[in-house]
TrEMBL record:
One of its GO terms (molecular function) is catalytic activity. It comes from Stachybotrys chartarum (strain CBS 109288 / IBT 7711). GO terms for biological process: nucleoside metabolic process. This is Nucleoside phosphorylase domain-containing protein. InterPro entries: Nucleoside_phosphorylase_sf. It comes from the Eukaryota.
Length: 57
């Protein structure tokens, strides 16, 4: 099941949801050595949205 579709449907069906956790999803987080930020295993990443990028590949 596509996580973006599920998240959209949950938000449309349950209007009072303030927090949703999507776990087990392989996401991409850029490493920016110039500002000293490194994302490593175990870090918690917060996002304000989910974007589908494969378009059904």
């Amino acid at each position: 099941v596509n996580a973006a579709i599920v998240a959209t449907n949950c938000h449309a069906s349950f209007l009072n949801i303030k927090l949703a956790l999507v776990v087990g999803i392989c996401g991409a987080v850029p490493f920016m050595p110039d500002i000293g930020l490194e994302i490593i295993l175990g870090d918690v990443i917060l996002s304000n949205g989910i974007i589908q990028y494969d378009l059904g590949r």
